[in-house]
Amino acid sequence: MLSHLPQSFVAFATAFVLGTLIGAERQWRQRSAGLRTTVLVALGAAAFADLGIQLAGPEGSTRIVAYIVSGIGFLGAGVILKDGANIRGLNTAGTLWCSAAVGAFSGCGYPGQATLLTFFVLAGNTLLRPLVNYINRRPVDETSTEAQYTVHATCAPEDVPDVRDLLFDKLEAAHYPVREVAVLTESDDLVELGATLVASSAAAGELDQVVTTLEKSPAVKTATWTASTVT
């Protein structure tokens, strides 16, 4: 195995340098998985792939890479956080996954491909950012944007069953099936219900009519609807 040391050194050094490039961008933006994490992911993937080659040749590296692909998913899941209706960390998890691929290329003896992949990972995290910001700043078009629509209604605690049924009835009558009705907030004298629609696109005017109809009910104190982009 000592004869393989130069190849291992090149593989580890390549993974280390390229992982540093990817991780530096994550660290600069203060992401949860920064420089050291990204380097270790790339270096670990390179080490396992290189070990597979030493033990069983190309076939061994193929099996190891398959385990890397599935195993890195558990690490990526650790940086994904749900914050209310929003999910944070998906981009960081994807970057870790790509870093593992960079390491796997390095460990299998393909430094050129590892470098090329690093370029595209950095391009995805930097060059595409202005485009993402432009798209995010555009106003949401309810008729064409895939979104999660929720109709909200507040009522007294004793009226919750009636208002829940009212939400189902009015939305079904408007041809908007309801996925679920959940209690969003609750206090001693007021409860907010949220009816999430199955539809991923809706007409604002139709939802306004539903809200107007709901507000006419004595049991409903306030009613409104919201749209949030699908993550």
From TrEMBL:
Domain of life: Bacteria
Similarity field: Belongs to the MgtC/SapB family.
A Gene Ontology cellular-component term: plasma membrane
Transmembrane segments: 6-25, 37-58, 64-81
Residue span, MgtC-like C-terminal domain: 149-225
InterPro entries attached to this UniProt entry: MgtC-like_C, MgtC/SapB/SrpB/YhiD_fam, MgtC_SapB_SrpB_YhiD_N
Keyword Protein biosynthesis: no
Alphabetical UniProt keywords: Cell inner membrane, Cell membrane, Membrane, Transmembrane, Transmembrane helix
Species classification: Bacteria, Pseudomonadati, Pseudomonadota, Alphaproteobacteria, Acetobacterales
Membrane disposition: Multi-pass membrane protein
Function: Virulence factor required for growth in low Mg(2+) medium and for intramacrophage survival. May be involved in regulating membrane potential by activating Na(+)/K(+)-ATPase.
Pfam family of the protein (one): MgtC_SapB_C
Start and end residues of each MgtC/SapB/SrpB/YhiD N-terminal domain: 13-133
UniProt key word tRNA-binding: no
Name by which UniProt lists this protein: Protein MgtC
Localization of this protein: Cell inner membrane; Cell membrane
